[in-house]
Amino acid sequence: MMKPEDVIKEQCARAKVVAELWHGFTGGAPKAALENLVVEFNKAQQGRCVRPVPQGGYRDLSTKIKAAFAAGKVPTMAQAFENNIALYLEAKALLPIESLGVKLQGVNLTFLNAVRFGGVVYGVPFNKSIQVLYYNKDLLKKHGVPVPATLEEFVAAAKKLSRAEGGPVYWFQPDASTFAYFFFNLGGSYLKDGKLVLNSKEAVEALTLLQNGVKEGWAKPITSGYINQNLGSGPYAFSVDASAGYTYYLRAAKFDLGVATLPGRTKGQPGYGLVQGTNLVVFRQASKEEQAVAKDFLEFVLSPRAQAVFATATGYVPVTEGALKDPVYQAYAAENPDYATIVRQSRYAKFEPALAEWEQIRFDILGQAIKEAILNKADPKAALDRAQKLAEDLLSSRTRHHHHHH
Known about the structure:
Strand content: 15-25%
Helix content: 40-55%
Number of helices: 18
């Protein structure tokens, strides 16, 4: 069997029009699923091909795209978060998706509204993951603990199981993604009257809850590698993590892995999960021929079969209604009830702000404040107040240097 990347190399060697797609998949199921999609698409093309180009992780990808703007050598397409889209729009670098003739009916409205800027859609939702509750069925069964439906039940279960097992059973990465789950479900919102607020009382409450969890011995911060790479190094009951990690968790777990909707504020509905993952954008600098390939590729990506195959191979959420009716999807979901849980959770979704500066804020400012509080026991309010000040400084310095065109 030829590796998909070698097949693509051959397909593109013969093509007159090559549309590059820069992406941030570093390996595993996501990269393989993307390459398989591309192979399928290219097979049906006469003299045209899409060539996926891995650019490291997502932060590397956006750094390389900024460099490509400067050099005037951008790809046809790339993966982009909502905040990346906001940034690329400042440079007027993107084509409206509908101007290419791509039809968007049937695309999940939550995802679509997140890529609408000034009423115009600038991205095609592609690999979207939602946070879910991963849990250890064997451990819960052993202690007769039901799957928690509310935040309160969740904390109580984590405390009880941690005492019984002699170690913290709720594992988390001390980062903005984990924080977002608690923040959103305590009623928090990052934007107040259009202004970014990182130090609201809900934010302080969320960070304090996590810090207390570590102090009280029921929460364990994972600081090296992904949570699933650490399984087996102590008692594990719960983590709140992206559905895109599903295939990795399954492989790593030596126990019966459960997937549930997130604990929320009340029993009435699941908690909100953070949507992560990217959209595909098309750059204005692409030639007319490349734009035509992009249009056909984006329509192919949105087709029910491609969506069903891509989503079930990865744990990403299907982005169209049509995918849920596809036989490939239905057969898979019937055999994997976890998957239906992931799709159900995707109806309770929240996004981080689509600010051009968000990538820097989320990692270097908010992310740092979270680490300070969790790893260095800094006071949550003081850490978030500092983050707020740094974010305001960053936003005001960028506004002074850029004339924004909205």
